[in-house]
Amino acid sequence: MREVAIIGVGMNKWGELWEKSLRDIFVESALLAIEDAGVDHIDSMYAGCMTSGLFVGQEHLASLLSDYLGAGPIPAARVESACASGGLAVRMGFIDVASGMSDIVLVGGVEKMTDVSGDGATYALSTAADQEYEVYNGITFPGLYALMARSHMQKFGTTREQLAQVAVKNHENGFKNPLAQYPQKITIEEVINSIMVADPLTILDCSPITDGAACLILCPADMAKKISKKPPVKIIASGNATDTIALHSRSDFTILNATVKAAERAYKMANVTPENIDLAEVHDCFTIAEIMIIEDLGFVKKGEGGKATMSGMTALGGKKPINTSGGLKSKGHPVGATGVAQVVEIVHQLRGESGPRQVKNAKIGLTQNMGGSGGSAVVHIMQAM
Amino acid sequence: MREVAIIGVGMNKWGELWEKSLRDIFVESALLAIEDAGVDHIDSMYAGCMTSGLFVGQEHLASLLSDYLGAGPIPAARVESACASGGLAVRMGFIDVASGMSDIVLVGGVEKMTDVSGDGATYALSTAADQEYEVYNGITFPGLYALMARSHMQKFGTTREQLAQVAVKNHENGFKNPLAQYPQKITIEEVINSIMVADPLTILDCSPITDGAACLILCPADMAKKISKKPPVKIIASGNATDTIALHSRSDFTILNATVKAAERAYKMANVTPENIDLAEVHDCFTIAEIMIIEDLGFVKKGEGGKATMSGMTALGGKKPINTSGGLKSKGHPVGATGVAQVVEIVHQLRGESGPRQVKNAKIGLTQNMGGSGGSAVVHIMQAM
C-alpha cells in the first residue's frame, strides 16, 4: 500500500443557507480545497452524503457533483453510512490512493438539510436507525441518545452538569471558528434550562440542523512532498467498524462498540496508543456521545468521561483537546459533511494555522465519525509530515 | 496493486417479493455467495443501493445489512451511483482487495422497489436525473430515453422493429434463466403493440420494477487459487466514468460518453480490445440503451447497433452474445442490484455452468452498468483463471 497525504482542505461557512443549493455549497468547498492544494486536475472523486434523496430529492449524487464541478468524466462515487458518510468518503479516498488506482483524489462531504418542511428533517434523520424495529415504533435520535445518557448516569454517576459542560466547552471553541453555525458562548445553566427534547437532553445538548460541505485533496505521500503548496499531512491509519444498528440489540447502552473496534484497528495500523494523540475531533451529535466516545477511544477510563470533561482535560489548553473546531454542537452538523470537516480541522491544526484555537505542538490528530446511534464508526489518525 | 478474483456468487429469485424485506433478500443472496465461495469469514463489505431512503425509509444501509448478516463488526460501506450503484460496489470491493486493506470482501447490490404506493417508484427513480433542471420540469426516465431513441432513429435510420428486437432477444434469454422476473418469450409485434409509455417506447421496451439482490465474494487472486471451491474468475479491469447528469447538457443524444470513457479505461487496464470480449452483460434499462451501448463499447460501429441486433449478432449463438441472463428487460432491474447481478452472470458463464444459456468457450466477459440517462457508467472485464 502506498502512503497517503492530504494536501488541500476547503470548507464553506456553515448555517441555514437558504439561498444556496446542495450543488453550490459542495462546489464552493471543492474549489477552496483545490485552490489550497494548488492542483490542476483530479483523478477521481468520493462524495459522502447521508440522504440527499430525502432532503432534496436528488440521488446519483457523485455524478451530479463532478458535473457541476466541471470535473467529469472522472470516476466518482457517493458513499453513505448515515452521519458517518463523510468519514467513510475519506476512507474510500484513502484506499483509492493507497491502492495505486488514482493519484489525486477529491474527497467531499455535503448535506443540505433545511430544504424540507415540517418534520421532514426528523424523518430523514430517523432513517439512520432501524426503520422496521425502531422508527416504526416512534423513536427518534434524541430519544435513543437520551436512553444512553440515562444508562450512563445510572451506571457511572455521570451528572446533568457534566453533560452540559460538553456543550459549553464546544461552544467556547466554536466561538473562535469563523465558519461555525452557532459560535455563541453558552453556560451550564443555559443548557440545563433550555427546551427539553428527550429527558435528560435539552435542545442545547443536541447538534443542530445545518447546510454545509467540506472537501479534501489526497495524493500519494511521495507526490505530496513534491507538489504540495502547504505542509502536507499524512493519513497514518483508517479504521472502520459496524455494530448492531438497533440500540435494543446491544447488551450495554454505555459502550459504542463500533467506535471501540474502529479505534483498535486504527491504533494498530498507525502503531500508536491513545496517549500519542495530541488532539481529536469526535462525533458530539449529543453531549452524552462525546462523553462515551472519549472513553471508547481510550482517552479516559470507561465511566470517567463526564468527570474528565468537567476537569478541563478536553478543553483547549487541556491535556487532550477535543473538538477544537466547535464540534458538531457549535460548528453545525450537516450529516454527510461532518466526517470530512473533522479532518479539515485536524489538518489546519497540524499545519499550525488554527489561530486563536491552535493546539500547541500538535503532531498527531485523530477523527472519530459515527453513524446513527453508533451502528457504524470511522476513525482516522493523521500526522504532520 | 494485487490481482483480484471472484470466488463466490449468489442471487435470489427476482420479482415482486411482497413477503420479504430488503434485509431478507440481501441476506439470502449473501449467504448463497458465502456458501458458493466456501469462506468462513468476511473482512469487509460493500453494498450498492440506489435509494433505500425513498423506497423503504432506510439509510445507514451497510451497517444494517452487516448486522442482519451477522457479520458485524466488519467495515461496511454503501455506495450509490443511481442504477450503477451495483457496478460501483464491485469497483470499491475490487480496489479494497487490490490495495491490500482487505482479503475477503463481500460485494452486494440490493433494491426493494415494490413497497411504495402510487407513483412513488417513478418519483424515487427520477432522483437519478437532475432534480432542479429535469425532474422539476416533469420529465421521467422513459421520456429521457425516448428522446435518445428518436435522435438515434433520425440520425442513423434505426427502426422501431430493431428497438423491439432487443426486448425479444433478451426475453428469449431470460426464458432460460430460472431467477428472471419475466421469463416469458415475446414477439416484435407484442412489443410494438403494447401500452405506449413515451413515444416510441412502449411498456415492453422498458425494464420492470423489481425486488432483488445479488452478491459476490472477492479475494486476492493468489489466495483464490488456494481456497476457491469452484474455478475462480479474475477481474482484469475496472473502469468508471461520469458525464453531464442532465441530457440537455450534451451535444449529442446518441452517444453515452460515460460508457465510452469507462470502456476505454477498462480496455486499457486489461490490455484487450472489444474483439477479445466473448460475451457481455449491458445496461438495457430501455431497448434503445442496449443499441447505443453495444456501439459505445466498440462491438459495432456507431449507428449500427439496431442492424446488428436484428442480424442475430448479439443473440445466444451469435458472434457477440449480449445479456445472456435476460438483461434488465427480462431478468428484472432492482436498480442497486443490477450491476452485481451482471457480474454473477459472467462468472457463471466463465465457469461453464450456465446450462441452456451457456456461451461456448467463453473466456473473457464484460459488464457495463449505467446510472440515470448515462451520467455514470462502470465497466468491468473478467477472465477465467
For the terminal residues of chain A, how far apart are their CA atoms? 18 Å
CATH class of the largest domain in chain A: Alpha Beta
The major beta sheet of chain A can be summarized as: 9 strands, mixed
β-strand number of chain A: 11
C-alpha geometry of chain A: globular
Integer-rounded radius of gyration of chain A: 19 Å
Structure description:
- 2 copies of one chain form a homodimer.
- Chain A has helices at 22-37, 52-56, 61-69, 85-99, 120-126, 141-156, 160-174, 188-193, 221-227, 257-270, 287-296, 305-311, 327-331, 335-351; strands at residues 4-11, 44-48, 76-80, 105-112, 196-198, 201-202, 211-220, 233-242, 279-281, 364-371, 376-384.
- Chain A is an alpha/beta fold.
- Chain A has 2 domains: 4-116 and 210-233, Thiolase/Chalcone synthase (Peroxisomal Thiolase, Chain A, domain 1, 3-Layer(aba) Sandwich); 120-206 and 236-384, Peroxisomal Thiolase, Chain A, domain 1.
- In chain A, the strands form 2 sheets. Chain A has a 9-stranded mixed β-sheet, sandwiched between helices.
- The model of chain A has no long low-confidence stretch (mean pLDDT 97).
- Strand 3 of chain A pairs antiparallel with strand 3 of chain B.
Concise summary:
Chain A has 385 residues and is α/β, with parallel strands linked by helices. The first copy, chain A, is 39% helix and 18% strand.
Features:
homodimer, 385 residues, alpha/beta, Peroxisomal Thiolase, Chain A, domain 1, nine-stranded mixed beta sheet, two-stranded antiparallel ribbon, 18% strand, globular
